[in-house]
């Protein structure tokens, strides 16, 4: 239901030249964080890495906002990677609400309906929650403080849903309790730098 680590790395490597930008290194940071946290929570660290690496793969189709969600979902579904498709869908919605999306609604009616319908069908699990958290602490240069990252997004888009903000902080607390340690220590915030493999 998801590719191997090597296949995921190749999918990202192939996608980046199609839409050059910071999203590739952001995705590598998400993957790193997801792997580190999963390993400390008794989850499948390899699966977490792959899902983190591919959460934004919809960006291979161009500079879109909400559109990258439907693009990623449809692309991973077409390859038979249903778990990865699900993460492409859920990573932007820590409350499961389309209305709380931070960014431009640049989808067609069909794409919007797809996202809304699939979100209603999903029963989120710890992999969904993990990638949502990792997305909220991952920059292109490395791991960021969650408040700094959310503030940066708010600055770029002019708004950040307060419930989404609070939900991200609750995710941080949830995984810190599961790990029994500080989040930033777990992901080596001070030293990790993403690089293409």
What does this structure look like?
The chain is an all-alpha fold. The protein has one domain: Orthogonal Bundle (Hypothetical protein af1432), CATH 1.10.3210. 59% of the residues lie in helices and 0% in strands. The chain has helices at 5-15, 23-40, 45-54, 67-78, 82-90, 109-121, 126-135, 146-157, 162-179, 183-186. Helix 3 crosses helix 5 and helix 4 (67-78) packs antiparallel against helix 5 (82-90). The chain is globular and about 45 Å long. The two termini are 23 Å apart.
SSE arrangement:
Layout: H1 5-15, H2 23-40, H3 45-54, H4 67-78, H5 82-90, H6 109-121, H7 126-135, H8 146-157, H9 162-179, H10 183-186
Helix pairs in contact: 1-3, 2-3, 2-7, 3-5, 4-5, 4-6, 7-9
Looking at this protein, list some descriptive labels:
197 residues; mainly alpha; Hypothetical protein af1432; globular
The total of helices stands at 10
Mean pLDDT: 96
Cα radius of gyration in angstroms: 15 Å
Largest sheet: none
Helix-strand topology string: HHHHHHHHHH
* Sequence stretches where pLDDT stays below 50 over 5 or more residues: none
Number of strands: 0
